[in-house]
Every structure is written in C-alpha cells, then in structure tokens.
UniProtKB/TrEMBL annotation:
UniProt keyword list: Flavoprotein, FMN, Monooxygenase, Oxidoreductase
SUPFAM superfamilies referenced in this protein's UniProt entry, alphabetically: Inosine monophosphate dehydrogenase (IMPDH)
GO molecular function: nitronate monooxygenase activity
Pfam families: NMO
Lineage: Bacteria, Bacillati, Cyanobacteriota, Cyanophyceae, Nostocales
Name under which the protein is recorded: Nitronate monooxygenase
InterPro entries given in the database record: Aldolase_TIM, NMO
C-alpha cells in the first residue's frame, strides 16, 4: 500500500512530518541535531539535562554555579538552533525530577521554543511555568492511561487547559529511563516485561479516555523501538499521530556527541543492550561497556556528585549507583567505556554515519 506521511500539528506548531527526534543527554542532542531535524521537516529536540557542564559558565569547583550555567547554556543552545532553522519546530526536553526544572521551563518558553516535552515524572505544575507564553506547546511523556488521567484532571482543575500532545512510551523498547509514573503518594504500574503488553492497547485506552472523559482528541506520539518507515507505518496504523525516535539520530553527522559515541552505536548489536539501575530510582536501557558491567556488579563508584542536580538522587543521598550527569557526559565526550550510553532496542539498524537530511529522506519516502 502506498502511503504519504501527514504533517504533525502540536498546538500552533506544524511539522511537515510526524517525526520527533528524541532528546538525548548530556549534549548528545543539542542545537546542531535539533536544528538539522527541524530543517528536514521533523521536530528537533534539545536535551536540557547537563547543558551547562561543558559551558564557560560552569566552575567545577563550585557546584552552586551549575544551575546558572545550565540556564545560560540553554539560551545559547536555543539561539544556535534558531540560527540553523529559523522557522522549524524546535523543542526542549526537561526532566521533571531536576532541581532547575521550573527555571528551565520558564527559560525555554521565554526564548521562543516551539514546545516543551517533559520526562522523568509527571509535570503537574508545568502550565504554571509557561503561563506567560501560551503559544508554547506542552507535551508530557506518559506510560499508561493512569498517568494521562492524573495530568489531565490536575491541569484542567488548576489551569483550565490540557496537554497539546502526549508522548506515549513503550517501556519495553525505549532507550534510557523507563517511566514508572510515580506521582507523590500515587504509584502507577511500570510496563516492563509484562506478558501480553501492547503499545496498541495503551494508545487505544488513552484515546478512549480523552474522548470519553475529556471530550478532546490530543495528538499521541509513540516512542520506543522505532527504527524505520515500517515501524512508523505500524504505529500510525495503531492510532498514533506520530513517532519519537532517538537512537537512529545518534548515528548522524549532525548529532552533537563525540564521534566515538556514534561509532560505538554503529558497532552495537541487540545483545549489547542491558538494563541498569539509575540514581533517579528507575531502570534504564543502555549499551554494555565497562561502566555498565561495574554498575551491574554493584561496584562502588568513587566519582563525586558534581552538580547536585536531582531532587532525589540515590548516589548523592545514599551513596548508591553513580552520578548520572557525570556518567552521561563522559560517554558523550567520547569516553565510551567509562560512561553511560543510553540506547533503544533498535540499536542495530544503522551501518554508517549519514546526514539528518538523508535519514529523514529515508524515513519519509513514499512507501
């Protein structure tokens, strides 16, 4: 069957293709990657976590400078992305569990970002931080209908608004942290290794809830394990409006990570994917290397907390796991054996480094 991908509208912003490039930290998806994706007709995303680490604004001897550095580095990155793609759809991903989450949300909104995607928790207060910028679309990441219900009912009651779109996470395939949807005293179930789990069922449940109880139709974007046009078509056939892809964009010329990081992905196979603990208290999917071997063996990590960035951190508070910022940054700088390399289940789908334009042309070609 011949099919043409339809545009994706999120709030007031329209991307030519229903493809969002996932945000990847630390500085794996920065301005170069986001700008290139936006130019190619997708939604380009900047990962806000740790942007300030390698910036001129951060002094490693003074942790207190990190949050200022992160804010200023985010402004710089947004300006660079806009220079690359003045009219494209560009967003920022912010982790709810970071201490500067409210500041980064306000900063992104004030600097003409198209949309904000959140992860790592339920963004129950997000509309408060962007209230002065109504054109900024708000897109929470969720794993199940319970999370959608909590967000929608809270936002409707407090702010008389609903999300502009939702990222629906396939926890059995997605790279990085798996959503557990913990929200204070309300513990929502994790969807990892659940017999009979179906992302199609989650899409159906979420769409039914939105129509039946909220009276709306909100774009649903699936993320996790999507690697090619066949996968995209499959998700759209299940009722999704678009997809979010991360791992495929790592092996592009414009990806902001070190070339060794990209090459490591090129050499990886599905059997190299491991699940490791994280200091935020959630499991995460990554590529096997010396670092993950140490983590899985519960070897003590000697590196200190470098930025005090998380609201709750097992490393800082209990001496468990590792410094997330340092681990991600080490890998992105090119130290692929002693850093953390997040990856989705589609790691073996690329054989060479190509441009974003080439990748997007392949993903969007009429099929």
């Amino acid at each position: 069957m011949t099919s043409i991908l339809q545009p994706l509208q999120i709030g007031k912003h329209i991307a030519r293709y229903p493809i969002i490039q996932a945000a990847m930290a630390v500085r794996v998806s920065g301005a170069k990657l986001a700008g290139a994706v936006a130019n190619a007709g997708g939604v380009g995303m900047i990962a806000s976590l740790g942007l300030g680490l390698d910036s001129p604004y951060f002094n490693y001897r003074k942790k207190s400078t990190f949050f200022t550095a992160n804010r200023l580095a985010l402004i710089d990155e947004l300006n660079k992305a806009r220079m690359i793609s003045p009219h494209g759809v560009i967003g920022v991903n912010i982790i709810v569990g970071t201490k500067d989450y409210p500041v980064l949300a306000r900063t992104a909104a004030a600097h003409k970002v198209s949309l904000i995607i959140t992860g790592g928790g339920l963004p129950l207060n997000l509309p408060e931080y962007t209230s002065d910028f109504p054109d900024v679309a708000l897109v929470p990441t969720i794993a199940n209908v319970q999370g959608v219900r909590l967000i929608c009912e809270t936002w409707k009651g407090r702010y008389n608004r609903l999300p502009d779109a939702l990222i629906v996470e396939n926890c059995q395939q997605v790279g990085g942290h798996f959503s557990q949807c913990d929200s204070g005293s309300v513990a929502l179930p994790i969807q990892v290794n659940v017999p009979g789990f179906s992302i199609g069922l989650v899409i159906s449940q979420v769409r039914d809830y939105l129509a039946r109880e909220m009276g709306v139709s909100i774009p649903l974007i699936v993320t996790g394990g999507i690697s090619d046009r066949t996968d995209i078509n499959q998700m759209l056939a299940m009722g999704a409006n678009g997809v979010q892809m991360g791992t495929r964009f790592v092996t592009t010329i414009e990806c902001d990570a070190h070339s060794c990081y990209k090459d490591f992905h090129l050499r990886a196979n599905p059997e190299d994917i491991v699940t490791v603990p994280s200091p935020i208290g959630k499991p995460s999917r990554a590529l096997r290397n010396s670092f993950t071997q140490e983590i899985m063996a519960d070897s003590p990590q000697q590196r200190r907390c470098i930025a005090n960035c998380l609201e709750t951190c097992l490393f800082r508070d209990q001496g468990k796991t590792y410094c997330l910022l340092n681990a991600l940054a080490q890998a992105a700088r090119g130290d692929v054996e002693h850093g953390l390399i997040f990856s989705g289940a589609n790691v073996s789908c690329t054989q060479k480094i190509i441009s974003v334009a080439e990748l997007m042309a392949d993903l969007t070609a009429q099929s």
